Amino acid sequence: MKNTGIRSWLFPYGFLVFVPISLVLGFTHANPIAVFVITILAIIPITHIMAKSTQELSMRTSTVVGSIMNATFGNAIEFLIAILAIRAGLVEMVKASLIGSVVLNILFLIGLSMIFGGTKHHEQTFNKESAGVSSTMLLIAVAGLALPTIYSAFTGKPAVIMSQAVAITLALTYVLSLVFVLFTHRHLFEAKRDVTEQVIWGWRKSLLLLLISIIVAGFEANILVNAVEPVLMNTGLSELFIGLVIIAILTNIPEHVAAIRYGLRDNITLSLEIGMNSAIQIALFVAPILVFVSPLVGTTMSLAFAPFQLAALILAVMIINYVGSDGICNWLEGVQLVAVYVIIAIAFFFI
């Protein structure tokens, strides 16, 4: 038991040693590949602290508010990296990371939750009403991102004005969906709370650690973004692959930690809500905000994505709609979701 406790402490908290190392390497302009790798290792414990502090805070709220909190703070690093990357001119990487986060959350995150949950539970049931509303929101996201993409592909124009109009519509829809979930139809989305969960940290400690981790994450995000272009030149990897796979996985660790934990505890409804809410928030809120923030940091971003990115999004939304239609899941369905994500990642490696 003692050795297990030591191992659980070493990972991920032992990785905090990489935080000062990454800061030193970043400010001394060391080898960019070393900086990139060390910074990724430094972000792992930071995201874990964010996940833990968010969990502690969310346990003082309803399960609905808790899942939205997990999604929101889980996307904080994504937003920081996106702003810094746009300022550095890496708009295509940002777009790929947005699509990557959506695809990752609805395929890889939910898939892993079903797999881990399926190792302990023969079958798991979830809230079909909640899944149905989330699936419809994802279809709206597909429509909102597809039309500027199609317009840009056929006209050759950047679709900036169209993207701004669509962004306003998507953001407004997201805000109204929060009103629906949190107020007018809250009863449809409440999930069971795990009675074994206990509040360990006080709310002041949780909030302080959350704020500190976000600040440190901002420094790490800046170092990571500065290392991206040299890494692209030295490794031959594309902006699309780094954004859609590496950055997307790195910035969504908090949601994965929370969702897998709930899957193991036979609360797959919360796992689905975390994954779906995170994906919806990225597509309907973060992406629209970036459209309006991007001119303020020197580069204009539209909602016109590459055809392969749009295809990946459509495939992901189609399969999660099918899997979530019956309210029952098992480990094989989790494997199927993860398999689709791996196929998409492989495709983007070769693009």
Can you offer a commentary on this structure?
It is a single chain. This protein is mostly helical. Strands 1-2 form a two-stranded antiparallel sheet. Helix 2 (18-27) crosses helix 3 (32-58), helix 2 (18-27) packs across helix 9 (203-235) and helix 3 runs antiparallel to helix 9. Helix content is 78%, strand content 1%. It is built from 14 helices and 2 strands.
Q: Give the spatial strand order of the biggest sheet.
A: 1-2
> Can you count the beta strands?
2
Number of helical segments? Answer: 14
How does the helix and strand content classify structurally?
mainly alpha
Backbone CA Rg: 20 Å
Query: Residue ranges: pLDDT <50 for 5 or more in a row?
Result: none
CATH class: Mainly Alpha
Name the CATH architecture: Up-down Bundle
How many domains comprise the coordinates?
1
Write the layout of secondary structure elements.
Layout: H1 2-13, H2 18-27, H3 32-58, H4 63-74, H5 76-87, H6 91-118, E1 124-125, H7 128-155, H8 160-184, H9 203-235, H10 239-251, H11 253-264, H12 268-293, H13 307-323, E2 328-329, H14 331-350
Antiparallel strand pairs: 1-2
Helix pairs in contact: 2-3, 2-9, 3-4, 3-9, 3-11, 4-11, 4-12, 5-6, 5-9, 6-10, 6-11, 6-12, 6-13, 6-14, 7-8, 7-12, 7-13, 8-12, 11-12, 13-14
Briefly summarize what is shown.
The chain contains 14 helices and two strands.
Characteristic key phrases:
globular, two-stranded antiparallel sheet, A middle domain of Talin 1, about 350 residues
